[in-house]
Design goal:
Largest sheet: 4 strands, mixed
Distance between the termini: 37 Å
CATH topology: Phenylalanine Hydroxylase
Order of helices and strands: HHHEHEHHHEEHHEHEHH
Number of helices: 12
Radius of gyration: 18 Å
Structural class: alpha/beta
CATH class: Mainly Alpha
Strand content: 5-15%
Bound molecules: 7,8-dihydrobiopterin, fe (iii) ion
CATH superfamily: Aromatic amino acid hydroxylase
Shape: globular
Helix content: 40-55%
Length: 265
């Protein structure tokens, strides 16, 4: 059981795999109104800044008026890619997290941020997870990659290489950019759910934007409390799948002795 008190969720009723009931009836009218405002704010931005694949995927979702019932989403999602979302109290330990991903279950936090956290929140809430992560679970290639990432996470734990592997998640699933004919577009959940960073990651000349390079990513540190200094750009989800297919064991062994890069290197 997670003991660090600063996590907000209620972990007391979590199962051994950290899943909980969503308890949809417990959401207040204010929760649903705040969720709707968050969707409306991001919807004005995603037209300009999200990658096309996210758009296609989100059309399969009935996201918007209120906090979704996870069971309703799971019927369509399971048909599309065999994935399901599972309700969790918030961040969960790496073992359960990777086990869920490896079994095509995406952990989605059940609680919603407070109104004063409209613009920024540290821990992932149901809006970050649902609006940022869930739509791309409908994309078959992305969905296959994420399941492989989960299996890779369990292996990385055995090899004590979690620090390196979590950078791959960070610079793709959370903050990844994709090249399109009209320029770079966001596919990372941390970008798609952010009121400010979604425009910044595409428009601002300040951050580095580098082509996806696995070994560079595995060595590049990241900050969780500010806009990214560097983004990595993939050509497509097919490329992400292909470039992360090899066995990382020899890569970890080689990189382990090389120092990390700072985020803005
Ligand atoms: N738990 N619920 C939840 N959501 C995450 O995105 C998450 C997590 N636990 C660990 C984690 N992410 C990352 O640290 C792993 O990629 C290592
Ligand atoms: Fe996330």
């Amino acid at each position: 059981m997670i003991t660090n008190p600063q996590l907000r969720g209620d972990y007391t009723r979590a199962a051994p795999d950290y899943s909980v009931e969503q308890d949809w009836a417990a959401y207040t009218r204010e929760d649903h109104a705040l969720f709707r405002r968050l969707v409306e704010r991001q919807s004005r931005l995603v037209a300009r800044y999200a990658c096309p694949e996210w758009f296609e995927a989100v059309s399969a979702l009935d996201a918007g008026r209120e906090i979704p019932k996870f069971d309703d989403i799971n019927r369509g999602l399971a048909r599309a890619t065999g994935w399901r979302i599972v309700a969790v109290p918030g961040l969960i330990p790496d073992g359960p997290f990777f086990t869920h991903l490896a079994n095509r279950r995406f952990p989605v936090t059940v609680w919603l941020r407070k109104p004063e956290e409209f613009d920024y929140i540290v821990e992932p809430d149901v809006f970050h997870d649902f609006f940022g992560h869930v739509p791309l679970l409908f994309d078959p290639v992305y969905a296959d990659h994420l399941a492989e990432y989960g299996k890779g996470g369990l292996k990385a734990m055995r090899l004590d290489a979690i620090t390196m592997l979590s950078r791959l998640y960070w610079y793709t699933i959370e903050f990844g950019l994709m090249k399109t004919a009209d320029g770079v577009r966001a596919y990372g959940a941390g970008l798609l759910s952010s009121g400010g960073e979604l425009a910044y990651c595409v428009d601002d000349p300040k951050p580095h934007r580098r082509p996806f390079e696995l070994e560079r990513i595995l060595r590049t540190e990241y900050r969780i409390d500010r806009y990214q200094d560097s983004y990595f750009v993939i050509e497509s989800f097919e490329q992400l799948m292909r470039d992360t297919a090899p066995d990382f064991t020899p890569i970890y062994a080689r990189l382990k002795h090389l120092g990390p890069f700072l985020p803005d290197a």
